[in-house]
Amino acid sequence: MPNYLQIAVYLFLLAPLAAQAQGGGPATHGARAQALGGAATTLAGEVWAAANNAAGLGTLTQPAAGAYLENRYLIPSLNLVAAAVAVPLGVVAPETAGQPARASRGVLAAEGQRFGGALYNEVRLGAAYGYRLGIINIGGRLEMLQVSLQDLGSRRALVGSLGGQAELLPGRLTFGAYLYNLTQARLATYQDERVPTVLRAGLAYRPSKQVLLLAEAEKDVERAAGLRAGLEYLPAPAVAVRLGYATLSEQATAGVGVAAGNFHFDYAASWHTVLGLSQFLSANWQWQRPASPPAE
What we know:
By secondary structure, the chain is mainly β. It contains three helices and 18 strands. Strands 1-2-5-6-7-8-9-12-13-14-15-16-17-18 form a 14-stranded antiparallel β-barrel. Strand 6 (120-133) and strand 7 (136-149) form a beta hairpin. It is 9% helix and 54% strand. It has one domain: Porin (Beta Barrel). The N and C termini lie far apart (70 Å).
């Protein structure tokens, strides 16, 4: 017989904590983004754009892979693990005046994640594509979402998302927007249960090479709007220090990043005055593609 008491405890106690942690919308991946308060809509050129905003893949010029771990409030049932890989397609066009290097056919990525424990869990498998067009990055993601509840079965939905980024002031000011679940995918007909539809939009300002300032708004169509903000400072080329805050989850965040050759390691922590400590860790790897054979 199903243990309905355990299931009820999870739904009424743990599930609301998870929803508050993610702001009712798509999860933010990568410890760098988490340390910046989750303000990731404008971040580009890294593998976690496959989850945060596919448009950010457009400026990735090397194959990349990443692994990500997070724990919310020291509760094992709120663990999340994710992995991603991204591959530029075609020839990488070199950097020109005012334009970064880019892959001529865009960047294709795949990302998978699992959240939760035995009683309740979510699995997402997604494919994303990003392309650089002038001063604009555009991208999209298609994912299969599976929600499982012990002894009560699973539900699946196909979720589509679109994103864009534009350099308003090249090298200085960037605007980003991301619409998650634009089709309002349905999980169940009972009470018309749907995957949250969320719009995120933000700005990134770089006053100097060492400083990055981020501000972002998030709106779930069925919930109040929230704000996220982050600051990244590079005291040395291979070291980053980060701070952030998110109003929806009422959490202050902080973290550090270290680059070692082709590897990047990031750690972040967040603090909620009632729920306590959350921790995030990610490792990214970029490598050179084999050189193309000379034309005959």
